[in-house]
Amino acid sequence: MKRFRSLEYPMLAALAAVGTGAMVVEISGVSWSFPFASPTVARTWAGLTGITLLVLTARPLWRGVGTRFAARTVVFAYFTLLFLGVAAVEQLWLWKRAGWPIAAVAPLPAQPLVRHAFWLGLVAGVMLGLGALSTAYRRLPPKDAPQKEWADLLPGATILVGIGLMGSLVVVAKTHTLALFTRNVNATRFDQNTGVGYASLLEYELLAAVCVAGAVLVHGGRSRGYALFLTVLGLGTLVVVRAERTPIIFAVIAIGFAYVLQGRRFHRLTVASGATVLVVGALALGVERLSSTGSKVTSRGAVVHAAYDVSPEFREQAWVYFIYPSQTPRLEGHAVAADLSSLVPSRALGVLGVDKRAVYGDISHTYSQTMSRLQHYPPGVAPLRVGIAGEMWADFGWDGLLAGLFVLGCVAGVVSRIQTGTPLGTVRKSVATTSLLFGLITPLGALLPLVMMLALPVWLLGGVTLARDVVPAALEHGDAVSQIGRA
Length: 487
Prior knowledge:
mainly alpha; 73% helix
């Protein structure tokens, strides 16, 4: 553990120093362009740093977790995405100049925009780290009622699978399509949930069930076969109905966290193999979605498309920091209303006389439409993620960027402080930590309902497991009392 910490602290100190320097650079207005002397130079140092940070982020999986697991994971993941994003953009610029498919015609942010986004990203990362440190220094006692075995969680997971399947059936019956097998997967997955209310969100109960059943599966014990069945059924349904990579990645990360939070460790080879399979599968699904649009996918085109999937939020943040507010006003109050409206069905708002279509629009939709209107992107571009940093900047500028990342760090620190030794508590903490990771890249308008549909059932699982233990005991106690009364 000492060796583990000896690698982490110098890296964090270096990032903090560079981030503080970036803040001075931004305030003074000095142009510090040496690290971006050429795309090759920037790609090299950013790629090496990003890979190093990625290894440090994943290291607790085989070295063991500490008391600040959630906080350090979120902070390291943020900087990993930042540096890998720089490396990906610079590599795309090299391919663009070489005339490779997709990159040759797709617009990319200019070098000054990339450099500016990197400095702002470092400043935001420092605030994220400060927020995590401010709340991750103490422990809270466990509050969960103990469960005897991991298998005690499976009845609740079964209920969640049933709810998720009902939501999927409603969506399929409404749209008469399965997203994975449609001609244009990208168009279908963005439009299939229109007009189905909470049914589309109920599909994510399958994801909650997978996180629970997968945790039971990796910890062994009774009913591992049934846990495997629920895991495969939930993930398979989500992939076929929604054709998204997010549920797969979310579930794998959450299950891995549930494994190590119980003091267990993966073998390095297991982590490397699992990460390879996960990345290859995600990239393959991305290529399948691209080919479903009718585009001819060559080997070079597949490689370029994969590079576009490497931390795409940073690439869009470079544009966000440029166009808001110099070319278009900030979103401010409209963004808050849009995020809150995502939690309420359109029909419920209609009863109150509110047209949700006039209010709702998460940052990914609003940003892509703005980029098309400003003619930076072609018309009809799909919604694009800008990450938590980009969203905070588009909403409120410097105040939102610094405060938003600080608050996210504080939440990560609070999650780290919660200690529990029960299976249910472990699942709750793993889901909360994974949600924080996805909070770095997912628009708030999409993240809030997702977290609600995951957090609420996982919290309610305590009632299901408690009822399973308490009700039989109460009935047995009642029989004993009645026998005493008869005597």
